[in-house]
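Recap slide: Heme exporter protein B, sequence and predicted structure.
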Amino acid sequence: MSSVDVQKPVSGVRSALGFMALFRIEMLLALRKRADITNPLLFFVTVLALLPLGVGPEPELLAKMAPGMIWVMALLANMLSQESLFRGDFEDGTLEQLTLLPQPLYFAILAKSLVHWIATGLPLALLSPLLALMLNLPVDGYLCLLVSLLLGTASLSLIGAIGAALTVALRRPGLLLALIVMPLYVPVLIFGTGAVQAAIDGYAYSTQLAFLAALLATAAALAPLAAAGAIRISLDN
């Protein structure tokens, strides 16, 4: 057996151990910063709770608007916490140290994106059936709404990492970050709302969920690579 064959498994084990260590650290940091978790949830719940007051309490109107409004608010709530994804690490120098680690920066970004989804996207998805009930969404759409948000918010966290990496060196990147990631969010929004609407109308929605799963797989493979390149460019500047 050649030395190259031996090094490949060893390198893979080291990368996996490095990923788990970074994931554990990021989870602990996320739990300490409770405002970063609660603010998107409060925004999500508050806006959807105020929706009946703004458009009227008619059940038919609310049911018609519910899929799109829930998905749009989930997207915006997800974006609220994207700006801080790499900000703290950039300011204290940790981000530069991550680029010097033996394992690829890909795994550090993947760990951060996963923690971001657990802290933001997962609670939003779990709360969505309750808010759907408040908005009079038909029962047939509840399961599809939950599954589509689980898949879609994970993609949003990964895609948002690209925008956060590109703007990490800017003092106020809010508007620029939105301009960068919004076009990339559109396919996720289209297939997410399309799946819920198809479930409500009694049609098969497996195709839309399959597209969401494909978008998630593509984002998991490519988004950390793009974000890693953007971070190196930001650090060089």
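The chain has one domain: 3-236.
The two ends are 44 Å apart (CA to CA).
(End of recap.)
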